[in-house]
Design a protein that fits this description.
Largest sheet: 7 strands, antiparallel
Number of domains: 4
Number of helices: 18
Helix content: 25-40%
Radius of gyration: 25 Å
Oligomer: single chain
Distance between the termini: 59 Å
Strand content: 15-25%
Number of strands: 19
Amino acid sequence: MQKAALAAFCIFAAPQRYHFVRRLLEEMTDVTPRAFRRIAVIAFGALALTHCAQNPVTGDKDFVLMSEQQEIQLGAQAHQDVLKEYAALDNPALQAYVNEVGQRLAKQSHRPHLQWHFTVVDSPDVNAFALPGGYVYITRGIMAYLNSEAELAGVVGHEIGHVTARHGVRQQSAPTAVGLGAVLGSILVPGMNNQAGASLLQTLAQAWTSGYGREHELESDRLGAEYLARTGYNPQAMIEVIGVLKNQELFSAQQARRDGRQPRTYHGTFDTHPSNDKRLRQVVGEANKYTVADPREGRSDYLQKMAGVNFGDSPDQGVIRNNALLHEKLGLAIQFPAGWRVQNRPDRVVAMSPKGDALVELQQGPKHDRPLETLQKGVKLDVGARYDSGNLSGYPAAFAAGAQQGKPVVVAAVVFNGTQYLIAGLAKDKASYERERSTLRAAINSFRAISPAERQAARPHVLQLITAQPGMTVAALARQSPLGADAESQLRLMNDLYPSGEPHPGQLLKIVQ
């Protein structure tokens, strides 16, 4: 019924749709309250001018808010915002490899005419996402857990499916969330040249972080499997990669329960259906009609490309060790509260409390040596805030306490090695602040110069390859790993041996050094 009505509505040209809507509004005059009619005029007027475009995949008419050219322009503009949140990985060989795989898949898609862009972003998060108009991103973090080119193609093909079916554009009318990478919020946005809260990413962040819903995710699985088969991969690689990611999700959930926090999940594929889901297998199975005589797996090629890639945090952003940020390049360290979830982004670090009602944020400020001026002019606090000057770990600093839009805030600006660093603590309400007051202040006061021992601990973890020898066990490898208590589980995950598999002699394995 909805589909038929939409098709009928989209038959009209824009002026006809406008007059059609006007007639509907005139009929509402006698039965609709004036206030509601005013809202309806605005809403229906927008609908009358809405673009009805053909879906590139189904051929049906889509009720969308932009043309393809507008979609491409949106993607190009938002691409710049993405790169502010997630820096592109400085690894030309790996970038070229992912781009080559992506371009081959895109040529077999329903929108081969788009200018496709494939970017590996320097993030430890296990994620991949796409922008309207042909922009696809895959994190360094998710690539650590894949084990073949076919699995890489499965992830990339799924994201291509979101673009070809215009899921992002069709999502435009859905409720929006905060920007990508700013999911935890930001205290220091006003006056600090941080555009995360105002970028175009806000309009699509909900879909990128939590998926497009079961039907759209299944459609992307079906499309991705088709593109895999058309490109010479086994379409069942889509099932395999979902299994890999599902194991990662299960491990993340176990960690979260242990730490009393919310688990991190990949945005779509497995949070809407498990790998043994009947409908998933059905839609992927539809690609079997495309004969693949000698499907490419590319296991060895993929693993060789991953050798030397950082695992976990990037040294360019500093590393997190036991919830402490150790930044060797900047020469600083700060201890975030134990049990809080820490997100390390190119432009800031944010730690969120387990209950999600308090956070600590660190970011760079101005390069002058007037911290009190920075707080008074740059951080917009409610009327009545208190300001003071002093020292923090022996460095010139200024402090402020008050509220931001009614939420209790404490902020420090400290001059360190010629640059100011702003550290802020925020609570949802007075009760949360009273409970976390000492924790927030302890985190701020922990800012310091990095010690020689911390410099050693700040060395990045790097993926390396070894060949399994007879009798080699994951437990034995874990005892030599720098990954600590989770080493055995992590090594199993990254080598598709989770939860209890063991390597066979001659198997190429990823380890962390």
